[in-house]
Structure prediction request, 596 residues.
Amino acid sequence: MKNAERGIISSYDMKKPLNKAVYVLMCIVVALMCVSMLYPIATALFNGLKANVEVNTFPPHFLPQEWHFDNYKKGWGFIDLTLYLKNTLFIFAGNMVVTVVVIGFAAFSLSRLDWPYRKAVYYFFLATLFIPPTTYIIPNFINLRDLHLMNTFWAFWLPAGANAFYLLLLKSFFDGINQELFEAFRVDGASEPRVFWQLAFPLSVPIFATLAIFVFAASWNDWFWPSMVMGGEHYPLATAIKKFVIDARRLDLNIRFAILTMIMIPPIAIFLIFQRFIVRGLHLGGVKG
Amino acid sequence: MNQTTAVAGQLSAETSRPRGRWRKYAWGYAFVLPAVAIFLLFLWLPIVKGIVFSFYHIDFVKGNSYVGLDNYKLIFKDPDVGTAVKNTLYYMFLCIVIGFWVPILFAISISELRRFQGFARVAAYLPYVVPVVVLYGLWRWLYDPVGPFNAALEKIGIAPISFMTDKSWSMISIVIMETWQQFGSAMLIYLAAILSIPRDWYEAAEIDGAGVWRRIWHVTLPSIRNQIGLMLLLQLIGTSQGYQSQLAMLDGGPNNTTLTYALYIVKYAFNNFNYGVASALGVLMFLVLGVLAVIQHRLSNRGGNAA
Prediction:
């Protein structure tokens, strides 16, 4: 039992006072780290519940002296959050469909079907990973303009299918599925689309769940790119918040924090519920810094 | 690997019937075709256009006109490009000095925790989940001249710091903010690697008389060498393209101290509407970063084989 429990430090080491002192110090440092991670998040939450005067007092208090829950109501009314939330979810749903259909089928074909020049096509996809996206951000913008996709949701949905990283993740997952299962399906006379929908896709739900979290995080987080390709009424939440809340000149700090808390809660909740998939995604990729 | 024999078997069976073979390949091509089209249209086309545009003056109204190397000449004469390159290098440097060792340190520490390991892991990762726009709003307030940081400094008797507007602090403040947000994800990768090190190795090292520090130095760190190399490169690739925090927090100011190269590209396009020069800046950046990306691929392949 001791063997299973030991890490770098063994129970024997702990008997030496110096090691013990260092270990205690290390625990304190980790505890401090936890506090410094949670403190700013908590201040955002509590500032959203204070009176505006109290947010602006120096030195700041951590907990509110009076609790103002009506800040949330005011914040909700300050900008049309429902509209932007709907846009965000719309973008997420479309991106996910494209990811499953376009990238899913392509990964399946590369992994499980046999055809000439497969390797060449694989490198055609893979090579895009070597080109840092910032280097073609401007031509990308002009390209969308030339294709008349500006200010439509297609400007997000279609390029969502051009993600070599997701393709790679899916392909390596399909590679790991037992080949005999596919053969059995084909012997039974299933067509390839049926093999995908009834075998490959259901078996790959975990990896698609991981991708869904990535895609959701991207649609919830991205503010700069949508601000370039979209007009006001099509903004996703992040862009709307950046433009109308963060950059707002006349907005009380407490209301601002109430709005920020509202858009911070959903991703945190999703993270706490789906931790497993997220951590798996990190291991699988190991590359998405 | 074991499917190659199956594939070879299929191939030899099918070569005698070309039409049947074509029908067999049809699904393969049909499945991959939409992705090929989208990659062409939304990745390769912009990439090629970027190179072409760098020789043009882009005008949405009157149409584009060929200007030869004028865009590049302009870039090499522009003193702000030099500033932007210097700022980017400084930013990359700060990210390593302030941020790179943090996840390694905490991964080792957290792996040693006997209790609350799960909690520490979640706490460290939590900021990564906070949307970046919230991050900007939150840290603007934390860095405020009368915000919590300065309140804490006052309490311990240090003169207040203008984290955002002081020229020598602005970039450091941004790096601290980003480290706070991002170290958790790197930490989880290191932690997974550390936890997969066989415990017997430590046992053996201990029997050989190695103290705790020497076990970390000679067992733990060498075992996660691949991850460290990979994360270093990924960080360099990522930070060399950084511009969003600088844009959102300070818009490149004060006095261009947070104007990074990528931010300059964006500004050239959307403040000056000079898309040709912006494309040329992108091409130059690609030439430098492409080398880094190839090294990363080499390294990550080696890491995969070793693990």
Summary: Residues 17 and 23 of chain B are 10 Å apart (CA to CA). Chain B has two domains: 3-53, 70-306. The first strand of chain B starts at residue 56 and ends at 57.
